[in-house]
Design brief:
Elements: E1 15-18, E2 29-35, E3 38-48, E4 52-57, E5 60-65, H1 71-76, H2 81-105, H3 116-122, E6 132-134, H4 136-142, H5 155-167, H6 180-191, H7 212-222, H8 246-254, E7 258-262, H9 268-280, E8 285-290, E9 302-303, E10 313-322, E11 332-336, E12 348-352, H10 353-359, E13 360-368
Parallel strand pairs: 9-12
Antiparallel strand pairs: 1-2, 2-3, 3-4, 4-5, 6-10, 7-13, 8-10, 8-13, 10-11, 11-12
Helix pairs in contact: 6-7
Length: 369
C-alpha cells in the first residue's frame, strides 16, 4: 500500500491571508498562504482561469475560487467578475449539453436523468454499452484530486467521500472538499468503536470494521463536515480519532441529505450490468472488491488475471468504462483509487469485466440531494 500525505482536492474555503506579492503568473510561488484553517507553504501557481487559481503546495494540490481571494490577489490574478460569470455560464451549458447527449445516446428523452429512483428503474434491463463512458476528466475539471489514505485502513471512507464531492459539485466547480476524518469518526461512533485505535505498525493490516454499508449509514446519520473543519489527522505516532466540536457536528448534520443505494444482484454477473446503468447516468459507483496480494501491477495498473485474496478487501470508485467492441465482456472499468497520485495512472487504475466477475463483493451509489 502506498503511504503518504493527503493530496487536497478543490476547496471553496476563503483565503484569510496571503504571503507577499506575486505577479499572478503560472509558476509564481507564494511562500505561505492561509486557506480557512489550513496553511499552504510554497504555493506554486499551476493554472489561472477566470474562475479559480490552482496551486501546488508542499503537501499536495489545491484550487481556490477567484471570488474567495482577497482583493490584492484578485487584482494580481486579473480577476474579472463579469468574465468569471460568463465562464461559469459557459461551463454550465457545456455540462448540460454533455448530460443531454449522454442520456440521448442511452435512449432517454428530455432533461438529464440523475434521479436515484429513475436509475433504480433501469436495473434488471440490459444496459447500452458505449465505447467509452469516462468521468475522470470531469473529476480533474472539478479539482477532485486523488488522495492517499496512507497506512490507515479507511478505503471505504475515501471512496464514498470522493463520490460525494463529485455529486455535490456545482457545474462550474470547484468541488467541495469534504472530510474523511469526520466520516471515520462518524462511522466509529455509529459502530460504538470510538476507543479503537488504528495500529501504529504500518505493516499491520487490521481492518477497523468499515463495510460500505456502515460508512453509508454513518454518512446519512451524521452528515459530512468540510475538510477545513476536520482535517485528516492520522500520523503514525498519534493514530487516535479526534472527536469533532459540537458545532461542526451540527453543521454537518444539516448539510443536504445523502442516501446510499446498493446495486442489486445475487452475483457479479447480475450486478455488473446494473453498475453500467449507473455509470451511463453519469453517477460514480463505490465498489468493494477482493484485492490481490501484490500492490504493484503493470504500468497501467490493470486488474485482470490476478487472483483476489479472500478477506483482503478494498474499496474503489468506478468512474467509467471503455470497450472497443461494444461488448460488456470486453469492458475495462476505470477506477479512482486512494493510494495517492503515484499509484497507477495518476492514481487511477483499470479492472476488466473478468476481474469484477470474479472479485466484486458489493457496490452502491449515492443520491446526494
Amino acid at each position: 500500500m502506498v503511504r503518504g500525505q493527503v493530496l487536497a482536492p478543490a476547496t471553496a474555503s476563503a483565503v484569510t491571508s496571503a504571503a507577499p506579492a506575486s505577479t499572478g503568473k503560472v509558476s509564481d510561488v507564494i511562500p505561505e498562504m492561509k486557506v480557512g484553517t489550513n496553511v499552504y507553504y510554497n504555493a506554486r501557481v499551476l493554472q489561472v482561469t477566470a474562475l479559480m487559481v490552482v496551486f501546488a503546495h508542499r503537501d499536495g494540490i489545491v484550487s481556490v475560487p477567484m471570488a474567495d481571494l482577497p482583493a490584492d490577489l484578485q487584482k494580481r490574478f486579473n480577476y474579472d467578475p463579469a468574465k468569471a460569470s460568463a465562464e461559469a455560464a459557459k461551463l454550465q451549458a457545456q455540462n448540460d449539453a454533455r448530460k443531454v447527449e449522454a442520456n440521448a445516446a442511452a435512449g432517454d428523452k428530455g432533461p438529464p436523468v440523475l434521479n436515484a429512483q429513475e436509475i433504480l428503474q433501469r436495473f434488471g434491463s440490459p444496459p447500452k454499452v458505449f465505447n467509452e463512458v469516462n468521468m475522470q476528466p470531469r473529476f480533474d475539471q472539478l479539482g477532485i484530486g486523488v488522495k492517499n489514505q496512507g497506512a490507515r485502513p479507511s478505503c471505504a471512507v475515501f471512496a464514498l467521500v470522493s463520490a460525494l464531492e463529485y455529486q455535490r459539485a456545482p457545474a462550474a466547480g470547484p468541488a467541495p472538499e469534504f472530510s474523511e476524518e469526520y466520516l471515520i469518526w462518524a462511522t466509529l461512533k455509529t459502530l460504538g468503536k470510538l476507543s479503537l485505535a488504528v495500529p501504529k505498525n504500518p505493516e499491520e493490516t487490521l481492518d477497523i470494521g468499515f463495510s460500505l454499508n456502515e460508512v453509508a449509514e454513518s454518512l446519512t446519520a451524521y452528515g459530512i463536515a468540510l475538510a477545513a473543519e476536520v482535517p485528516y489527522h492520522f500520523v503514525m505516532n498519534d493514530p487516535h480519532v479526534i472527536e469533532p466540536p459540537t458545532d461542526v457536528i451540527e453543521r454537518a448534520k444539516k448539510r443536504s441529505p445523502v442516501d446510499g443505494f446498493y446495486i442489486p444482484g445475487r452475483e457479479p454477473k447480475v450486478e455488473i450490468p446494473n453498475i453500467i446503468q449507473v455509470l451511463n447516468a453519469g453517477v460514480p459507483v463505490v465498489a468493494g472488491i477482493k484485492w490481490p496480494v501484490q500492490n504493484k501491477f503493470e504500468d497501467n495498473a490493470l486488474l485482470d488475471a490476478q487472483p483476489g485474496v479472500d478477506k483482503n478487501f478494498h474499496a474503489i470508485l468506478l468512474v467509467g468504462y471503455m470497450t472497443k467492441t461494444g461488448k460488456m465482456e470486453d469492458a475495462q472499468f476505470i477506477f479512482k483509487n486512494s493510494y495517492g497520485e503515484k499509484w497507477g495512472e495518476r492514481g487511477y487504475g483499470f479492472a476488466t469485466y473478468k476481474y469484477l466477475l470474479n472479485n466484486l463483493q458489493s457496490a452502491l451509489f449515492l443520491d446526494a440531494r
